[in-house]
Amino acid sequence: MLGRVIAGRMSEVVGQQVIVENIGGAGGMTGSERVAKAGPDGYQFVLGTVGTHAQGEFVSYAKANQAHMQFGSAGAGSATHLGCVLLNYRIGIDVTHVPYRGTGPAMQDLEGGRIDYLCEIITTAKPQIDGGTVKGLAILDSKRVRQLCRICRPRLSRAPIT
Fold this sequence. Notes:
Layout: H1 2-14, H2 29-37, H3 50-65, E1 70-73, H4 79-91, E2 96-99, H5 103-111, E3 117-118, H6 122-131
Parallel strand pairs: 1-2, 1-3
């Protein structure tokens, strides 16, 4: 819908018709790949969500650089360790594990760039995500997580003033 609105105005500005072609599949990655492989003629571009592309970018980067990457955890066998083991298995990478004595030191090293990623629990990660010191790329859950979902937060209802 947004693409069609933008295309209408772009047609007016550039003086020629702009065509919107929806390429479905793989959460937007099929269309993105098509545009990435197209010639640099300026005739194709992608309009998509940031989340999908950041996740697709992370997976590609991790696959290409896994031999040099490290992930942190709150310690061997912790929830943060097992979360990353599951993630690594699902995307088919083998990355070096760096166990810490808790999530605090692991998060500090993530913020400082000394480790590449951390599969953190929401209660600890949310302040850093909200503060912009780290980026959340994915949730390892099959449903929305209310603490991170702006559109599913309950709206406050106000009683009329009488």
